[in-house]
Design goal:
The complex is a heterodimer of chains A (about 290) and B (about 280). With about 290 residues, chain A is mostly helical. Helices cover about 75% and strands about 0% of the residues of chain A. Chain A folds into two domains: about 35 residues; about 200 residues, MetI-like (MetI-like fold, Orthogonal Bundle), CATH 1.10.3720.10. The longest helix of chain A is centred in the N-terminal third of the chain and has 34 residues. In chain B, helix 3 runs antiparallel to helix 8 and helix 4 crosses helix 6. In chain B, strands 1-2 form a two-stranded antiparallel sheet. Classes of the chains: A mainly alpha (about 290), B mainly alpha (about 280).
């Protein structure tokens, strides 16, 4: 009796443990299930490099290039801001600040992660968007720049906490050896610790990028949602995520438009899968 | 020597300023919301339905909806996530399968929230014919929160010393008895913290519920789990982007209620963790 119970429990635990793989596969299958129908009507190449996204005009055009470029531009802007800030913040928290303040600062970063993206979007709309409009004398402040700034803050918790972990696990003796050779604390940080932690910091940056590319609500609320190929940061853009969120409600189930949005979802899934895979490879390397 | 000292001072100042730039906006965001939203908060705001095209009245249905969603999603994801974490920490071997499993968890955590929305729409709403309903929304949110609960459980279980297990096993306990009585109780604070943090995240999510459960405007409360509900984050999105001429205090008030929920869950989780970390004697 006891053995049967033990056996059953082990099986249940094993099944629960395997669910993650099952769900990743399920997500992919169900995106494909709806999205694949789209490619009966539209060539894959036309979908990726087509320059016009006019899903409801007739004939409808489903060129994803403006959306891809929109996502890339916003992500690039967010990374230009958040990589230096995030890595600096991680270095400060891991190595410089005195231990008493350390927990307080980490809590602060965690609280940033706790603010829902729709709230970040709302605050961006009422504070940052008018500011950007006035500073650059634009017709609208709903631009790629506004999106990048808000997204930079949303990427920060990921980048800071993972980079901080990577810096903390660098063996103490590296730093001690550098200090013993006469390096200052900063030189040891910059020339030794930062180099040793580089793979982990790279993984942190990749995960930050994944977070930003997948972000939906804040981006939809503050980037202006114009599906045109962007030429500067001061233009409205539309991202892959915002397109799905904004148009799914209006699309008719079973229409080309509906399938096209699932096809966009497949592209997003693949992009984030690759990014997470790369990050995981680098994180795995550190553990070895 | 003089130069290196000065450059160190400058460098540390730059790091310090970067940290401030990261953290101060959080405080500013919270302060702005409290300052503008506090005037909207009243008993009536919290307990009545929106009226006058959502320009006045309260947010009661959205609060109830968010509460149901968080509760329902946790009821599904907690047992699965904790068992999954136990598998990883206690049963999994260091082999290829485990490696793939971990990659699966990392990827599940990295799937964009809007893609979860699409998935929920395709699987639960359409294929399983559950419709746009609380069940569909809870299932979608539950899968989304699995990775964080699994990871929190695994970390908490792994940090319990080996000797605890060895003592229990040597006294004749089975593997499950050992896990249940010798390991799990000591890992529970970490698991509780992880659960609270993932609940906070679910409470604030909008994209996964857009097509699976959220209602634009629905003054009455749901009668069954197959009904739609309003939810706080979606309500905030709707009133701040789709309702022209809405008074500022209503939107700020909604944002305030939402962040009070998410921040208090988070703070509570952080406090549990800090307090119990100090209690640990090993």
């Amino acid at each position: 009796m006891k053995k049967i119970k033990e056996f059953l429990i082990e099986k249940i635990i094993f099944i629960s443990g395997s669910l993650s793989i099952v769900f990743v596969v399920l997500i992919f299958i169900f995106l494909i299930k709806e999205g694949i129908l789209f490619f009966k009507y539209v060539q894959f190449k036309d979908f990726i490099v087509g320059k016009n996204w006019y899903p409801i005009s007739s004939p409808a055009q489903f060129g994803m290039l403006p959306l891809i470029l929109g996502s890339l531009l916003v992500t690039l802007g967010a990374m230009i801001i958040s990589i230096p800030l995030g890595v600096a913040c991680a270095l400060y928290i891991a190595e410089v600040v005195n231990p008493k303040l350390k927990d307080l600062l980490k809590t602060g970063v965690e609280l940033l992660a706790a603010i829902p993206s729709v709230v970040i979007g709302f605050i961006g709309m009422v504070t940052l968007v008018p500011l950007v409009k006035n500073i650059f004398h634009l017709p609208t402040g709903l631009t790629a720049l506004s999106g990048s700034i808000m997204l930079a803050f949303m990427a920060m918790p990921t980048i800071v906490s993972i980079a901080e972990d990577a810096i903390t696990v660098v063996p103490r003796r590296y730093k001690e050896a550098a200090l013993a050779l006469g390096a200052t604390h900063w030189q040891a940080l910059y020339r030794v610790i930062l180099v040793a932690a580089a793979p982990g910091i790279f993984a942190a940056i990749m995960l930050g990028i994944g977070r930003v590319i997948g972000e939906t609500m804040a981006v939809m609320m503050i980037t202006g949602n114009a599906a045109v190929i962007p030429h500067s940061f001061l233009q409205p853009v539309r991202t892959l995520t915002a397109t799905i969120a904004a148009e799914m409600g209006e699309s008719i189930r079973g229409s080309n438009h509906y399938y096209a949005l699932f096809a966009v979802g497949i592209i997003l899934f693949i992009i984030t899968f690759i990014i997470n895979f790369i990050a995981d490879v680098f994180l795995h390397r550190i553990k070895k | 020597m003089f130069n290196t000292k000065i450059s160190q001072k400058i460098a540390f100042a730059v790091l310090f300023v970067s940290t401030l730039i990261t953290i101060i906006p959080v405080l500013i965001i919270i302060a702005i919301i409290i300052k503008n939203g506090i005037t909207a908060i009243s008993w009536q705001f919290l307990t009545t339905a929106p009226s006058n095209g959502m320009r006045s009245g309260g947010i009661f249905p959205a609060i109830v909806g968010t509460f149901y969603l968080a509760l329902g999603a946790s009821a599904i994801s907690l047992p699965l996530g904790i068992l999954g974490g136990i598998y990883l920490s206690e049963y999994s071997k260091n082999n290829y399968f485990t490696r793939i499993l971990k990659l699966g968890i990392v990827n599940l955590a990295g799937v964009p929230s809007i893609v979860y929305g699409l998935f929920g729409l395709s699987l639960f709403v359409i294929s399983l014919k559950l419709g746009v309903s609380i069940v569909s929304g809870c299932l979608t949110l539950a899968i989304m929160s699995l990775p964080s609960i699994i990871t929190a459980t695994e970390t908490a279980m792994s940090s319990v010393p080996r000797s605890f297990r060895e003592v229990s096993l040597s006294l004749g306990a089975t593997k499950w008895q050992t896990i249940r009585y010798a390991v799990l109780p000591h890992a529970s604070p970490g698991i509780i913290t992880g659960t609270l943090l993932s609940n906070a995240r679910i409470t604030g999510e909008t994209a996964p519920i857009l097509f699976t459960v959220a209602a634009f405007y629905l003054p009455q409360l749901p009668n069954s789990v197959f009904d739609q509900v309003m939810a706080l984050p979606y309500h905030l999105y709707v009133i701040s982007t789709q309702i022209p001429g809405i008074s500022k205090s209503v939107t700020y008030g909604t944002a305030l209620v939402l962040i009070v929920f998410t921040l208090s869950l988070n703070l509570f989780g952080i406090i549990v963790r800090t307090y119990l970390r100090r209690q640990k004697k090993w």
